[in-house]
Description:
Elements: E1 2-5, H1 9-20, E2 25-28, H2 32-39, H3 50-57, E3 61-64, E4 75-78, E5 83-84, E6 90-91, H4 93-102, E7 111-114, H5 122-132, E8 140-144, H6 153-158, E9 163-167, H7 176-185, E10 189-193, H8 194-225, H9 229-237, H10 258-273, H11 278-290, H12 293-303, E11 310-314, H13 329-336, E12 341-345, E13 359-361, H14 365-369, E14 374-377, H15 382-385, H16 389-395, E15 400-402, H17 410-415, E16 419-421
Parallel strand pairs: 1-2, 1-4, 2-3, 4-7, 7-8, 9-10, 11-12, 11-14, 12-13, 14-15, 15-16
Antiparallel strand pairs: 5-6, 8-9
Helix pairs in contact: 1-3, 8-10, 8-11
Amino acid sequence: MIGFVGLSHLGLNYSLATAAKGFDVVAYDPEPALARRCAAGDFPIEEPGFDGLYAGCRARLHYTSDASRLGECELVFYALDIRTDANNRSDVGPLDALIRATAPALGMGATAVVLSQVSPGYTRRLAAQLTQHPDVKAGSVLYQVETLIFGSAVQRAMEPERYIVGAPEGGQTLPRALRDWHAAFGCPVLVMKYESAELAKIAINFFLVSNVSTTNTLAEVCEAIGANWFEIVPALQLDRRIGKYAYLHPGLGIAGGNLERDLVTVLQLSARHGTDDGVIRAWQANSAHRREWPLQWLQRGLLAGAHDPVIAVWGLTYKADTHSTKNSPSLELLRGLCGRRVRAHDPLAVIDAQEFGWVTRCASPLDAAAGADALVVMTPWKLYGSVETPALRAAMKGRLTLDPYGALDEGRCRGVGLDYHRLGC
Length: 425
């Protein structure tokens, strides 16, 4: 039996993948209403493939708010999402509370694995605390880097690229229960010191941020000189030093929670230890600069001359296939349009009607575009690419169409007379 503590996005997807690999799973959350809801097959998240996978393995999933059930498990993952505040600083308080409340319930010699993303130093401190706790009978405490990506969480949980495990010392043999779990997923396993594993997750995100920032910088140059970034991308992908899997899609800065959080985490470490943080602050500045792209275009192409224009915004989440609006460029655009008439659509996201009182939520993309002087596609949902461009042109009053991620077909948009613009072109 394998246990998961915390029925957040991370815990729900990893526990489901574990059951799908044939293990019996105890999925615990201290909130009884949430545990009952999940037991009834009503989940608080939306992920492609989740419901279908659940239907095939639901008999092996045991959702509960009874912590004593964790005593049946040889292996227990702490898989609570780590929230960030308005300044992208991690709040591990809820994770600490959850571990304190449940660690005494773990069975003799059980392996506890922190799957939640934590800052370097956290797991070693936790291991020392649990070792000294008179009521904790668990054997070893480990850390494992999670691979969660909103919108592809099921696929990432089922088909991991690798597992990175933090232990007291690098290269040591892992407990049998964890080795058996790893074997079911058939991917490389790297074992290193706690601090190395904790920093490895941040290092991966830093290299991604570097790609994002470089791509956005050069895409803006393309816009200024008449080059086309998407003609350049194949040249980069054919260079072995960069590769075909490099992240080379221009975007509106860094969105979501994890990347910003990791930048802030290392800024804090740099301040504490006196290391250089110039490149991190440059990435943050570049991200903030590129987020202004939609609003700058609207100001140049519409707001400066139009009287009381209507602006349609498609997409509120920070990326497609998720309900999350954390650090969403779309919400930042809405705030920049405060006082304007905005008609918005998103298939999943819910926004605060009081906070965004000038925004009208619409039932469909075409409803949002009705009478609009401009359309901005802020999230590249597949739904938007399926909208017929003649119908879109007929619904809109104006022609300005800003599609930073290329969700629409450029040729079709231009073919019906829309004034179409995309990042990097």
